[in-house]
Amino acid sequence: MSTLLTDEIRGYIGLRSEAITACDGVEPGAVRRYAQAIMDDDPDYAPGAGNARHRGPVAPPLYPSFMFRRPFGEPDPLTEHARDPDFDGLSLGAGDGLPELPLPGLAMLNAGSEVEFFRYARHGETVIQRSHYADIYERVSKSGPMLLVVTETEYRAADGDLLLRVRKTAIRR
Amino acid sequence: MNLAASAPFEGTARPLRRVFEDIAVGDEIGPLFKGPLTTAHLMRWSAAMENWHKIHYDLPFATGHDKLPGLLINGSLKQQFLAQLLKDWAGREGWLWKLRFQFRAMNLVGETLSVWGKVTALREAAEYGLVDLDLGIRNEAGLESTPGAAIVALPFRDGPAVPYPFMAPTG
């Protein structure tokens, strides 16, 4: 019988976040730094790019999912934790807007991602994300029961076009 | 003009047009080499995405606090390499539709990564062909760290470019 997948946890399936707008639009300078950091010198990323399909210069495929940074006015985690020797430096930026599952004491492991691409973000566009718990199910491994939590996030341009859909599976045990 | 036969490349490694009929199960794509990846590469990526996870640049923290064997190459960077390989292979009229991957093993600073793909199946949708691929990232020692799979849509030889924005096949 299930030991982790309670009715309370099951109730999170389908729960949606509010829409979150990335604090900056698709900035040419940020795109250049990102493209240089991933070492992908695709000419379609450069200002003045002439690929008719995209109707202007674009950002790398996964760029929209990395746009949700810490906005102005939000606390600085590096300064807040400057005297904490256990702080790992991990920054969640704007997060996904979903409430934490009430699973205290359970570790979280990344079990993989699936990305669907629909179009690339153009320079100057605003990107909006919205997430939901797509599925939560239980499996039993050698070390006991575990929950698999599937979170789906859609990234859209301000004109409503779907850019990316990302499904991440986390193991909680 | 059909450019598929000679597959001329634009820029780094991007064919102008790759067509479905030229692809066979078992075809290998890549490899795309990245590296050797130094601490500076990882710092540049951390800065570009504004995430300061210390296991990528703070060696005493990574080995002393987190008990890791060294500084880790970011999974967030490795997934970019998979996307680049497939985007470039799809060409200007094809489209990388789906990309799936898992981070199964660590890659350490100093490694050179080889990003590869292999065609596993071919299917025809109404407007374009679909190419299934297995993917991975391998280091010099042969360790496969990032198994995955992808679906790339390619135009038919006598057909139009894959629709953009992409429209997934129905049914």
Q: State the fourth-level CATH superfamily of chain A.
A: Hotdog Thioesterase
Largest sheet of chain A: 5 strands, antiparallel
Whole-Å distance between the termini of chain B?
A: 32 Å
The counted number of beta strands of chain B is 7
Which CATH architecture of the domain at 16-38 and 72-154 in chain B would you pick? Roll
Structural class of chain A: mainly beta
Question: What is the N-to-C succession of helices and strands of chain A?
Answer: HEHHEEEE
Largest sheet of chain B: 5 strands, antiparallel
CATH-defined topology of the domain at 16-38 and 72-154 in chain B = Thiol Ester Dehydrase, Chain A
Overall pLDDT confidence of chain A: 94
Which residue ranges of chain A are poorly predicted, with pLDDT under 50 across at least 5 consecutive positions? none
User: Beta-strand percentage of chain B?
Assistant: 25-35%
Spatial strand sequence of the major β-sheet of chain B = 3-5-6-7-4
Pfam families (chain A): FAS1_DH_region
Protein name (chain A): MaoC family dehydratase N-terminal domain-containing protein
Domain FAS1-like dehydratase (chain A): 25-162
Organism (chain A): Bosea minatitlanensis
